[in-house]
Specification:
Largest sheet: 8 strands, mixed
Oligomer: single chain
CATH topology of the largest domain: Rossmann fold
Low-confidence stretches: none
Number of domains: 2
Strand order of the largest sheet: 4-3-5-6-7-8-9-13
CATH superfamily of the largest domain: ANL, N-terminal domain
Bound molecules: adenosine monophosphate, zinc ion
Shape: globular
Radius of gyration: 22 Å
CATH class of the largest domain: Alpha Beta
Number of helices: 12
Length: 438
């Protein structure tokens, strides 16, 4: 396999060499953070008054975690570490609770982010000859703008189509011979269905790759997308608090996502105790920014669950890899006392070739118990209105779910296109229990 690097020196550096610059960057980050109201107080309480108080990377542990709630409480200026005049962009995220968080970027921040994004897309083999159709939403959400500038820097022709308007997406895709897509996996499944309806097959298109991210998805969904479009699909991880896309990205080996460790310190912790997990164990990802000027963040708890691969990657990059994100700690459902992540349900149903592009998970109260209903679209030709015709498939779905999550769900099948599709991140889980008890 041919390996392309954007910045070979940084990407393949010996981790022990990198440790020196990481320590220097961490100290500088702490000094910058001390210039914010929030960290002046927080670090002061921890007895840290200067970056020099940190003697080794291990001393990072002296710094308390930063949470999403901390970011909310610091809104709007509590975490700003530079003069407002030096800020060139803000990304604001309102999340589900509506209380906003803000990340400021200086010109240098945007430049560093662009480098990480360029490095990320290059790791997949994409290059300046590519035509990049960016179907992630442009705006306050970081998914669109983040890879936009990275792809431009690499020299691709970028089509900033943003999300939605599927008919127009298809026209652009065909007219400009798009080779690389960037979208949520749920939107690509939807796009494929619309293409197929119009009689368009992969042979009519020039696609070779897609970058997918922003929402949890299973390996089966990747395989499904690869087969549908006849392309390679790469997982992309990022979050607004750490810039956005370009935090971790798969290389051509598609075996975990390289976390750019010159720009971030990553830790994996037990979400309950806050202590580091044993090597390779699953836990909550925690990141510290090493390069960011305008909004340095120290030990930010992402709530995202993953694990670190211990083996080196064949691509030669020395940046550690994380596994597919299982979900967020706050996504966990407790159904009749059993802990379940929506991604486990997706994993179990997407294995079945009969299951179509979309599904929903509904949890309700049924007397004293919880009831889990899985609604899944089924491919045309297999779907029947007569529930009896669907019994064999129903049994397979129930069996798969029972063996992975130890729960017997109610299964409802629907025709392709029946369940609603979101432009941005897919909403799959509907937990009606809070409303029932209210
Ligand atoms: P936002 O800050 O709105 O961009 O959302 C970031 C969140 O999206 C992350 O914390 C993850 O929960 C989720 N996310 C982003 N990329 C992925 C991915 N490749 N797989 C699973 N979840 C992802
Ligand atoms: Zn690799």
């Amino acid at each position: 396999m041919e390996i392309h690097y954007w910045n070979r020196k940084v990407e393949t550096a010996d981790p022990s060499e990198r440790a020196q610059s990481r320590l220097a960057d961490l100290r500088a980050t702490i000094d910058r953070a001390l210039g914010t109201d929030f960290y002046a107080r927080r670090l002061g309480e921890a007895g840290i008054s200067s970056g020099d108080d940190i003697k080794s990377l291990d001393d990072l542990k002296r710094i308390p975690y930063t949470t999403k709630d901390d970011l909310r409480s610091a809104y709007p200026y509590g975490l700003l570490a530079v003069e407002l005049d030096d800020v060139v962009r803000v990304h604001v995220s309102s999340g589900t609770t509506g209380v906003p968080t803000v990340i400021y970027h200086s010109a240098e921040d945007i430049d560093n982010w662009t480098e990480l994004a360029a490095r990320s897309v290059t790791a997949t083999g994409a290059d300046r000859r590519d035509v990049f159709q960016n179907m992630m939403t442009y705006g306050l959400f970081t998914g669109g703008l983040g890879l936009h500038y990275g792809a431009e820097r690499v020299g691709m022709m970028v089509i900033p189509s943003s999300s939605g308007n599927t008919q127009r997406q298809i026209k652009l895709l065909r007219d400009f011979r798009t080779t690389v897509l960037h979208a949520t996996p749920s939107y690509l499944l939807h796009l494929h269905a619309r293409l197929a309806e119009g009689g368009v097959t992969p042979k009519d298109l020039a696609l070779t790759k897609a970058f997918v991210g922003a929402e949890p998805h299973s390996e089966n969904t990747r395989l499904k997308l690869e087969a549908m479009f006849e392309i390679d699909v790469y997982n992309s991880y990022g979050l607004s608090e750490m810039n956005g896309p370009g935090v971790a990205f798969e290389c051509v080996y598609k075996n975990g996502m390289h976390v750019w460790e010159d720009a971030y310190i990553m830790e994996v912790i037990d979400e309950k105790t806050g202590r580091p997990v044993a090597e390779g164990e699953e836990g909550e990802l925690v990141f510290t920014t090493l390069k960011r000027r305008a909004t340095p963040l120290l030990r930010y708890r992402t709530r995202d669950l993953s694990f670190v691969y211990d083996s080196p990657c064949r691509c030669g990059r020395t940046h550690r890899r994380i596994g597919r994100i299982k979900g967020r700690t706050d996504d966990m459902l407790i159904i009749n006392g059993v802990n379940i992540y929506p991604s486990q349900i997706e994993e179990a149903i997407m294995q079945l070739p009969e299951i179509g592009n979309n599904y929903q998970i509904v949890v309700e109260k049924s007397g004293a118990l919880d009831r889990l209903t899985v609604k899944a679209e089924v491919h045309a030709g297999i779907f029947s209105d007569d529930a009896r015709d669907m019994n064999a498939l129903r049994r397979k779905v129930i069996e798969n779910l029972r063996s992975s999550i130890v729960i017997t769900p109610v299964v409802e099948f629907h025709e392709a296109g029946f369940l609603p599709v979101q432009e941005g991140k897919a909403q799959r889980v509907f937990d009606m229990r809070e409303e029932d008890t209210a």
